[in-house]
């Protein structure tokens, strides 16, 4: 009997699952609420200056020494990569009114992190090319999943034009953060109470975070022997890295130490003014000559964050697969990076979650 699988979410995990199912000859459909593929992967160019390259406002790296799944996939898809720039000294900013301290890491002291030519979106696009046209439906927000008496599954969605559309499936892969599943989708019959509790208690990786990228003509800090890496107790960015492209354009990106609620109270304009003040403080007057300042606050992204994600993480979350029992066993499969016990929060975790979900489907359909 031919099976049809619906995948909810066209991020890295959802697209990988669709690619693997297609290769197995299993019919699938991917439903994505956004108007783009990629999910928490977001590589963007400077408005009116695509020549400067693309810059990641979501994840940026992977680590080939430890992450074999993504390393092998990148090789199979022939996606271009380059090593993160780390040469030179780092800066440590302890106090507002004192110059940053300069430190030099011993060579080969850290694992090599690798970035993508054209941003992580290049991996997303390469995966999408392995999926038949028409499989992915954008602007399709899943609102309800219903298990029928004949064991079939009905998926109810809202379309961008306001219309509703239903899909049928034999199983559903939920390639979404667990909290989004719990807060955005109504299940009938209801999910077991302990599963709902566990879903809500899984923090969405980087959902409470924001990222800024300052784009320059060239990576001028390298000329002063700096790597671009900064650790700051002053802020607003607590961690800064070189985000320059492999084609010569300079860029610095930073993660914020300012909690989500405080960022929203400040507003984007004031926050980015503080970002520029910090960059000038750290790297000198040359930092003022910025081509563009790109910004993404993931806590304000309805498809990523829920209210619980506004609270800053105080420790690395306990991630891993959540067992599904009862009516929904083998009918729904969770497949976000948060379901990976070893690589939760990483691109590697998203890919491993997709592979595990497809393995369940393949074993079930035999």
TrEMBL record:
SUPFAM superfamilies: FAD-linked reductases, C-terminal domain, FAD/NAD(P)-binding domain. InterPro entries: Amino_oxidase (IPR002937), FAD/NAD-bd_sf (IPR036188), Flavin_MAO (IPR050703). It comes from Sporosarcina soli. This is Flavin monoamine oxidase family protein. Coiled coil: none annotated. PANTHER family: AMINE OXIDASE. It comes from the Bacteria. Residues 115-358 form the Amine oxidase domain. Belongs to the flavin monoamine oxidase family.
């Amino acid at each position: 009997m031919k099976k049809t699988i619906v995948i909810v979410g066209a991020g890295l995990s959802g697209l990988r699952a669709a690619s693997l199912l297609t290769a197995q000859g299993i019919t699938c459909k991917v439903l994505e609420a956004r108007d783009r593929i990629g999910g928490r992967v977001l590589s963007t160019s400077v408005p009116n200056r695509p020549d400067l390259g693309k810059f990641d406002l979501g994840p940026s790296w992977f680590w080939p020494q430890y992450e074999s799944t993504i390393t092998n996939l990148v090789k199979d898809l022939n996606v271009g990569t380059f090593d993160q720039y780390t040469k030179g000294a780092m800066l440590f900013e302890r106090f507002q009114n004192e110059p940053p301290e300069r430190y030099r890491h011993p060579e080969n002291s850290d694992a090599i992190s690798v970035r993508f030519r054209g941003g992580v979106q290049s991996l997303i696009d390469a995966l999408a090319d392995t999926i038949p046209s028409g499989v992915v439906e954008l602007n399709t927000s899943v609102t309800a999943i219903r298990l029928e008496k004949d064991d079939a599954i009905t998926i109810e969605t809202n379309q961008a034009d306001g219309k509703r559309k239903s899909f049928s499936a034999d199983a559903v892969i939920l390639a979404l953060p667990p909290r989004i599943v719990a807060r955005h989708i109504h299940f009938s019959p209801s999910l077991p109470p302990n599963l709902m509790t566990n879903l809500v208690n899984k923090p969405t990786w980087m959902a409470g975070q924001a990222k800024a990228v300052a784009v320059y003509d060239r990576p001028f800090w390298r000329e002063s022997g700096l790597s671009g890496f900064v650790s700051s107790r002053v802020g607003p960015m607590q961690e800064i890295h070189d985000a320059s492209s492999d084609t010569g354009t300079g860029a610095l990106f930073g993660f914020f130490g300012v909690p989500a609620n405080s960022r929203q109270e400040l507003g984007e304009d004031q926050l980015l003014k503080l970002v520029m003040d910090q960059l000038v403080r750290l790297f000198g007057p040359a930092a003022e000559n910025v081509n563009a300042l790109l910004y993404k606050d993931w806590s304000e992204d309805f498809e990523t964050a829920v209210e619980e994600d506004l609270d800053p993480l105080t420790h690395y979350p306990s991630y891993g697969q959540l067992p599904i029992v009862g009516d929904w066993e083998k009918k729904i499969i969770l497949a976000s990076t948060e379901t990976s016990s070893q690589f939760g929060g990483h691109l590697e975790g998203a890919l491993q979650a997709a592979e595990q979900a497809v393995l369940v489907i393949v074993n079930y359909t035999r």
